[in-house]
Structures are given as C-alpha cells and as structure tokens.
Design brief:
Subunit structure: Interacts with the RNA polymerase core enzyme.
Number of strands: 0
CATH architecture of the largest domain: Up-down Bundle
Shape: flat
Oligomer: single chain
Distance between the termini: 46 Å
CATH class of the largest domain: Mainly Alpha
Function: Sigma factors are initiation factors that promote the attachment of RNA polymerase to specific initiation sites and are then released. This sigma factor is involved in regulation of expression of heat shock genes.
GO molecular function: DNA binding; sigma factor activity
Strand content: under 5%
Protein name: RNA polymerase sigma factor RpoH
Subcellular location: Cytoplasm
Number of helices: 15
Number of domains: 3
Length: 292
Amino acid sequence: MTSIAQSSALVANNLPVPSALGSLDAYIGAVHQIPVLTAEDEQALARRFRDEEDLDAARELVHSHLRFVVHVARGYNGYGLQIGDLIQEGNIGLMKAVKRFDPEQGVRLVSFAVHWIRAEMHEFILKNWRIVKVATTKAQRKLFFNLRKSKKRLGWMNAEEVSQVAKDLNVSEREVLEMESRLSGRDIGFDAPADEDDDHAPPSPAAYLRAAEEDPSQSYEREDEEDNQLALLREGLAGLDARSRDIVKRRWLDADSKVTLQELADEYGVSAERIRQIEANALKKMRGLFAA
C-alpha cells in the first residue's frame, strides 16, 4: 500500500512551482488556468483516490485547488514573509487534506482543506516570527554593530547623543532612532495568551491571523466565477474592431477618464448618434459571449 509520505512525494513532484515557471506571477497565472472541478467530479476523484489509491486522481484534486492556496496566502501579506513561501507551505497542507478527505461527509474539499492549508501557513509564520531582520541595508548593518558601543549610557539616547552618533557613523538621525528602537525591543510569544490579570495587555500576534470571512467553498467558487467573467470580457474585447474596442474601453472601463458620446464623436469625426450605435452593437456582441 502506498504510504502518505510516498503519495505526497509523487503528487508534489507534479505540482507547478514558481521556480520552474520563471516567476511567482507566472505561477499564479498558471494555476488560475486550471479548471475548477464540479462537486460531482470532485467526489468521483476523491473516491478513486480513497478506494483505488489512484495518484492521478489525487493529483487532479490538488491541482484544481492550487488557486485557493494562493487566495489564502494573500491574506497573510502583513507578516513580512514571502508570499511564495506561504504558497509552498499551503500546498503541503492541501496535499495533506486531499489524503484525509472523506467524500462521504457531504462537504466540498475546499471547505475541508482550508483548515489544513492555514495550519501549515500558521506553523511557518510561527517559525519565522521571531527572526527579526534588524539590519538589511549597509547603513543598518553599520548601526547594528556600532550603536551599542557608541552609546555612553544605558537607556534611550537624548537628542544630542542621537545627533553625535549619526554624525560619527555617517547616517541619518532617523536611522539611529529606528535601530535603537529595534535593539531595545524584545520578542514575544506568537500565540502566548495575554496575562489575565492585565486588562491592558496587548493581544498576542496570533490574534491577528486572518479569519475566514465567508464559507471557503463559496469564496472559491465566487473567485472562479470572477476569473471566468474577466476572461470572457478580454475575449469579447479582442473580438471587436479597433474603433469599437476603443469606444467600449473609454466609455465603460476607464473609470478615471470616462468620455461622453460627443467627445468621441468629435474625435472620430462622426455624429454622437453614430458613436451610440457603434457602442450598442459592440456591447450586444460581447453580451453574446456571456450568455453562451
């Protein structure tokens, strides 16, 4: 029987990764091209993997949900970590979810997988939260190694001392103050509970983790529908002649510089009624794609 570790490796070896595609943007674009499964297809694939250990079925389940991992990862941008790293961790959680998913429970995989995806991302954030980057530029590195010995006493420096240190190290006073603040700070537990006896204690960092704003399956399907609508819009515009496309864009898509029929009429040397007719015909042609 194939173990979880073995099947994880086999599925992972076939996942698209940013390094293979050249950039994170290329990866995100690639995973958004993968079709979303219907509930029926999802159930059939899950049963094939559970009953027959069909790794192709597992791979298809994972691939079809990679865009959701990207969606979840974007919710953690505020932690100062690379979104590519978060996506990779989330993909691990997704694979774990696929292996534990029971299609008989009557829920969509995305609703089950979101907890595993977030768990892997949370663990990654926990491991990296205390790694404070106190010196990332040449000036900051100089400050990091010289600020402590430049201080004449314990405690915060006064304005005169800040000015002298900045002059001695050839950096700005703002950089001196920022580095002093970093060096004077202390780490706190990521998920440590606040002191129950201290009503004014700030919440731990874990309290700021993004919470689900709506049912994951609904969010996933809504995002997919928006992607499909956007793709149809691009296809519709591509099918128009240059003048019709320009009129539609400037009348409906350029929110900051929407023009009037008369302005377009003056530009193209025709009547405003003619511009209205061109616009109406173009929109009618585009609506045909959405109704198909």
